[in-house]
Amino acid sequence: MPKFSKDISIVVGGAAGQGVQTVEAALVRILKDAGYGVSACKEYMSRVRGGSNSVQIRLSSARVPRRAYIRRIDFLLALDAPALEHLRWRIGEGTTVFAEKASADMGGICRFIDTPMLRFAMEAGGNPIYANSAALGVILGVIGIPSEEAETYLTKVFSRKGDDIVEKNIEALRKGHAFGKHAAYAENIEVPLVPDDGKKDDLLVDGTTALGIGAIAGGCDFISSYPMSPATGVLAFLAQNAKRCGIVVDQAEDEISAINAGLGASYAGARAMVTTSGGGFDLMQEGVSLAGMIETPIVIHIGQRPGPATGLPTRTEQGDLNLALYSGHGEFSRAIFAPGNPAEAIGSMERAFDTADAYQIPVFILSDQYFLDAVSTIDSKEIVRLPIRRNIVKTQAEYLRYALTTDGLSPRGVPGYGDGLVCVDSDEHDESGHITESFEVRRAMMDKRSRRLDALRDEAVIPHAFDNLEGAETAVVSWGSNRGVVEESLTRLGSRKLGGLHFSQVFPINPAVETLLSGKRIIVVENNHSGQFADLLVRELGVKVSRRILKSTGEPFCVEELMDELEPEA
């Protein structure tokens, strides 16, 4: 009899167009509403139809859901034969596979249950498309959740398509549910996880939504972008909420126009942002340099995916840290955030707008495909609303836009707010904003623009130290989306020798980090080929990185493989 002590891993696989993501969306919502801790992630090929895609849903009784990708599959629902082959490397003795027997050859490596989802679909609606609703019913039947919960969901989702479509989906669901319930009884499958009514009020968000919420909370009132996956979702979220949140949305003709429109809006006093991926950001770099010269705030979200060039457009990577760090010709200050969970995403986006506004610089938010698409429940208490600090001054007649100051920050005015002239120029300029080629003025302006970096370092977010860092011999360092996999791997290893340190701000680095890492052996975990953040730690802190655990295949780390890498250190 399969036993599940802490969490269950459910995977649904099939071709693009078979409704794999429809099953995921329904499952996470229904399971959350039932009171379970839920997280989910997906992997998909860059094609509209065909291929082999999958989603993983982790179900737990824990108040805080496990938010990491794992290799283990407890229940696999395969909607076609290629899904079984695609996921074969993750199937083991503990896996129960629900699939059409005619298309399966598992060689006795797992528990296999012949599941006629196609037949259920044809009986319910005369079309294979209803197989995803049958699959949903199978899972809920095995877990023991009444079909009525799903029927309400399907009615809401498909109501716009008419009563006939709703009824056919519900009939397929019921057939699958009856089958799953019977299979659980016949195969003696028990799911002893206990739901918690207190979790029903938790929020269910993905990384995209969390960043969008953070942008709204940070005062964003202008976004200009050209769509590019995986970052397009942030643009779409803000567009959907534009009217009630007072946001001007501009879908530009290209990325060059997008960042220049953002800078124009910021010059006029808006809190502006752009969102793109690495290839699109390449076109924005002249605009980033312009922001540095005219000292105009802008928030830039980069949804990372593997390059070079088009690379793997629907896969994940942390390969654009150097791109953000060194983008734009010339030298000027900047800040870079890289959140690792939904609460951090909201807070980091708020800080990004606040930092850009306060220091008059470009500020980057780095995410990646895995993080943007991953869904999890979150307690609303985890969200901290930060105050919005406005730094625009009312100008006087003698106002100087680029006045030299001891802290490197000139008072920022905007056109029409006061009597002063707000003159900006992409050429080197004097305090009034007029072009100059004076070497003395050039030296003073370069010093002024770089001087604010000291304050940025002192205000940088101190990385999150996991409970096991103090007293550990080795610090396992992560940034961005690897927070969950490092945290769970260290918890499961349970070694006092290993501690974790997660960075949600990767540049500049707070000087306090030196104390946190003092005397420890340092291992850096990141999804790129060379170890870009490890290089940055060495450059900024002068520390020695003993080992780099890297992955650049386009897949996220899974807990089991990271545990294998860290076990010799434990």
Written account of the structure:
This protein is an alpha/beta fold and 570 residues long. It has four domains: 7-201, 3-Layer(aba) Sandwich (Pyruvate-ferredoxin Oxidoreductase, domain 3), CATH 3.40.920.10; 204-382, Thiamin diphosphate (ThDP)-binding fold, Pyr/PP domains (Rossmann fold, 3-Layer(aba) Sandwich), CATH 3.40.50; 392-444, no CATH class; 464-569, Rossmann fold (3-Layer(aba) Sandwich). The chain is 38% helix and 18% strand. It has 19 helices and 20 strands. It has an eight-stranded mixed sheet with strand order 6-5-4-1-3-2-14-7. Helix 11 (278-294) links the parallel strand 10 and strand 11. It is globular and about 85 Å long. The mean pLDDT is 94.
Helix content: 25-40%
Q: What coarse outline follows from CA principal-axis ratios?
A: globular
Sheet with the most strands, sense and barrel status: 8 strands, mixed
CATH architecture of the largest domain: 3-Layer(aba) Sandwich
The largest sheet has its strands arranged as: 6-5-4-1-3-2-14-7
Rg over CA atoms, rounded to whole Å, is 26 Å
The low-pLDDT segments are none
Can you tell me the CATH superfamily of the largest domain? Answer: Pyruvate-ferredoxin oxidoreductase, PFOR, domain III
Q: What is the residue-averaged pLDDT?
A: 94
Q: Could you name the CATH topology of the largest domain?
A: Pyruvate-ferredoxin Oxidoreductase, domain 3
Oligomer: single chain
| DSSP summary: helix tally | 19
* N-to-C span: 32 Å
In CATH, what is the class of the largest domain? Alpha Beta
Structural class: alpha/beta
